[in-house]
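Dear Dr. H.,

I hope your travels went smoothly. While you were away I took the liberty of generating a structure for the chain from your last submission, since the lab meeting agenda had it listed for discussion. I wanted you to have the full record in hand beforehand rather than looking at slides cold. The sequence, exactly as received, is reproduced here:
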Amino acid sequence: MNFAFIFHFFCFIILVTLKHINWNKTLNQKWVHVKMADEAVCVGSAPTSKSYLNMDAIMDAIRVTGAQAVHPGYGFLSENKEFAKRLAAEGVAFIGPDTHAIQAMGDKIESKLIAKAAKVNTIPGFDGVVKTAEEAVKIAQEIGYPVMIKASAGGGGKGMRIAWNDEETREGFRFSSQEAASSFGDDRLLIEKYIDNPRHIEIQVLADKHGNALWLNERECSIQRRNQKVVEEAPSTFLDPVTRRAMGEQAVQLAKAVQYSSAGTVEFLVDSKKNFYFLEMNTRLQVEHPITECITGLDLVEQMIRVAKGYQLQHTQDDIPINGWAIECRVYAEDPYKSFGLPSIGRLSQYQEPLDLDKVRVDSGIQEGSDISIYYDPMISKLITYGATRAEALGRMEDALDNYVIRGVTHNIPLLREIITHPRFVSGHISTNFLPEVYPDGFKGHQLEADAKRELLASAAVLYIAAELRSAKQFVLFRVASTPVECSHWELCVELGEERQDVEISKSGTVEMDGAKVEVWGALNLASPLLPLTINGTQRMLQCLSRDAAGVIVLQYLGTLFKVRVLSKLAAELNSYMPEKVSEDTSSILRSPMPGTVVAVSVKPGDTVAEGQEICVIEAMKMQNSLTAVKQAKVKSVHCKPGETVGEGDLLVELE
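The corresponding predicted structure, in token form, is as follows:
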């Protein structure tokens, strides 16, 4: 098959790219997709409306390269029927379904009607377009709360809000319509009954142009934040063979109803009694498709290209296995301590994927030196592990997260590691409400028990001594021509938060504290970001992010960053005389919790605001976030205006 094509991926774009200063030298070094491509064509500047959503620029790239086909990936124009039509008019193959299927399934209102006609289980709701906020309230009252407000043309969790009362419906209508217009160029909304505490389980389908269609088993996607998936696995722990077949057969019925040809995904909500309801169909490759590839052995992109070329499917339903278990973690440049993940930007100053581990796959489009900007989704990579059993796959994921080095941006590895090791997740007792139920007060990082705390403090103390010994050796080599004084015992003070612990360390690596002994052993390479240690006989992988002259060591331990301070006993005594820094009063100021663009400012100097009242709206990575007052007060000054770009921590509004 001689098939030259453009691979226009959501984040991982082979062939088309962006304008950049000193483009040939700088961008080629920073972006993996440019390095991998035989040809790279600039399609515009960073804003998506001027580049990846600019059909004219993409069509020009196709003409310049003479591409015969376009694979749209899983974002931007991947489900845009107008783009598919323009390709067809140019005689270029669209590696995906035809425009009829894209239109039918891309519109949530039409897709629900088609699903009903195809005898697919659907969620009760309003089948028309909701035009105003007051109409939304009326419909929600008729359906009965809670309801889900979502974009008709949407996907990826954008343009979706859950409403539990009339006021939340009005607010949800406003934000969902704005996000829908920003992300999809279509602000139409629909409302349906919200299935409380459901699982989100999807079926992968594959169909050709000859009437053949298969279901390739399920993917469990229930671990979500803001309706966007965080951790996925295949198969699901919840489905039995009978339910799996019923869901698969209904998914194929729907695909055949729209004469679907290519890979696609039918998403369902599943309640505690295994009743399942059609949610939507994604007429594209899913971000989480690698876990299906792991358990079936099929290359979905290869199958899509074959179908686009006109070949029949090579397999029958009986050929589709479930071999082993696969887990995917979405590694994001996000701060997990803020609403389970608000976007972070910056340059990757150090980046090392755990590819030396067995049965680990990393799909990424970045490398060391790449920039994470405000213009695109903050995903860094998809981290996939595979095993013969679920326990094996989870164990490999734990190791992979511990060995993943990311510096320069805040990332969500602390949250991912906590999820996959949480007893409730390990037991398979999950739902789309997992995060708010497990962390009702927000994510706080790994909570150290006594043994783990001793392990951390002992590791920090050993690392401190190793650094001191190296410094002493270098001092002798380069400054003083005398023999260093040998020492076999050290007394230190280690601080973690408000706690202070006296420790004693022997040269053999035995650390004594609080009447207990911790054995720490390892060949410490202080130049490496990874610190493999054996602690009381258990192998651990720690990461040292920084050390400073004040004895502060930042360690990544069990996925979470801990700031530990190690001092000699004398330094600890003298430190007690140092004045403490006074914390900033944050109740009277509003700072941006993330980098983004100011969409709206709802107050002006002199206004009186109530507690919980909206002050402004920040858009980051196409998601709108309403910032509210934490107390009743008078507005003293406003430091932002709509359209401005703000950074994390920038002052927005001051209150009296």
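Two observations you may find useful: The CA atoms of residues 107 and 447 lie 44 Å apart. Residues 8-29, 474-484 have pLDDT under 50 and may be disordered.

With kind regards,
E. W.
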